[in-house]
Amino acid sequence: MRPMRRRNFGMLTVGTAAGLMTTQAQANAQTATPGGGGTVIRDVVMAVHGGAGSIPRGSLTPDREKGFRDGLEQALRAGFELLRQGRSGLDAVEAAVNVLEDNENFNAGKGAVFNTDAEHELDASIMNGKDLKSGAVAGVHNTKNPITLARMVMERSPHVLMAGKGADIFALRNGVAYTTQDYFFTQRRWDALIAAKGTQAATTADIGGTGTVGAVVVTGARDVAAATSTGGLTNKLVGRVGDSPYVGAGTYANNRTVAISCTGTGEVFIRGLAAYDISALMEYARLAVQDAAARVITEKIPALGATGGAIALDPRGNLATPHSTDGLINGYITRRGEVVTRLYNDETPPR
Q1: DSSP code per residue over 216-266
Q2: Exposure check for the chain: N or C terminus, fewer CB within 10 A?
Q3: pLDDT band for position 242 (50/70/90)?
Q4: Which residues, 6+ apart, have CB-to-CB distance to 345 below 8 Å?
């Protein structure tokens, strides 16, 4: 097995509310510890994901692999740098997701999949764990970065969720440039749509075709935040909305428990209130993040007939990345600035 890709970008100074790391804590930062069917990675500041699903080793060209890893690293570095500047967790997750939305390797923003009418309909949500404020958009057609629009809905309107034409108009009224549908086009996603129309399933070459991107963060003051953005499913019905813009299903953040971003079969994540359920198990049943996340993602969701994954980060920097698929495209950065990216199914710690 090849080692996971690691890079170091310098230590993040931890605020007094969180306390300074001890030597032993630094030594344990990368330890994956079993726990009730889940694993935990310690001393994480921020994590991102690029969708649930297996990528067998050798299935990607070197250039394609580099594109995925560089995208995950760039997203982590963008958020990490803002944290080093003392910016908020919301700023960090928005910046990280912006990077992934702008990267055509991922199914969000540029490179999003097509619906059955060969259009792009984009969904996103963002949540602040400190006050439970949140914003979301669904079915956006003409906004380059839906996660930024979701934050605008949270901060510049009395609403939580806006959809379709109204959301795009709200974007224009708040100074967001109009983006034509051509911007989102990629040949790979077009080929996947044609394949799906012929076989009712995307080809294996369309890796990440049903994926989603997301980010979770914990600041030095132990404030958490989460953000999720997606293009949805290849060949989805016009108007279909998955779990990504639903607070409590695809995204959740609460300073008392955890920040979560989910990916998978959205309809079932909505039915199971997956993200909130993880938080509730932590708050009311006092489960550790790895145990709560594993119970929902690897037990409850499959029992409802679906698969998926999540990144779940608690206020102490403990990260769980459970998945009921063979893998989860993800990466994380520690307080020391060490970055790890994971693409292949043999790079994920054992569940």
Answers
A1: EEE-TT--EEEEEEE---TTBPTT---STTSBTTTEEEETTTEEEEEEE-H
A2: N
A3: very high
A4: 54, 55, 56, 57, 326, 327
Partners of residue 126 on adjacent β-strands: 135, 227
Q: Residues 210, 212, 219, 228: which is the catalytic one?
A: 212
223 backbone dihedrals φ, ψ, rounded to 5°: -90, 135
pLDDT band at 57 (very low <50, low <70, confident <90, very high): confident
Report residue 226's pLDDT band, with 50, 70 and 90 as the boundaries: very high
Nearest to 322 by CA among 339, 304, 300, 305: 300
Closest alpha carbon to 100 in 149, 147, 155: 147
Q: The CATH number of 5-347 is which of 3.60.20.30, 3.10.20.30, 2.40.170.20, 1.10.760.10?
A: 3.60.20.30
CB neighbourhood size of 21 (10 A) = 19
Q: CB-side exposure of 44: number of CA atoms within 13 Å?
A: 32
Tell me the pLDDT tens digit for each residue of 316-350.
999 999 999 888 999 999 999 999 999 987 775 54
Q: Both tokens of residue 22? A: 């001890």
Q: Are strands 161-163 and 134-140 parallel, antiparallel or unpaired?
A: parallel
Task: Clarify whether 203 is annotated catalytic.
Answer: no
CA–CA separation, 313 vs 262, rounded Å?
12
Tell me the residue type at 272: G
Query: Tokens in use for 69?
Result: 């890893």
pLDDT band with cut points at 50, 70 and 90 for residue 193: very high
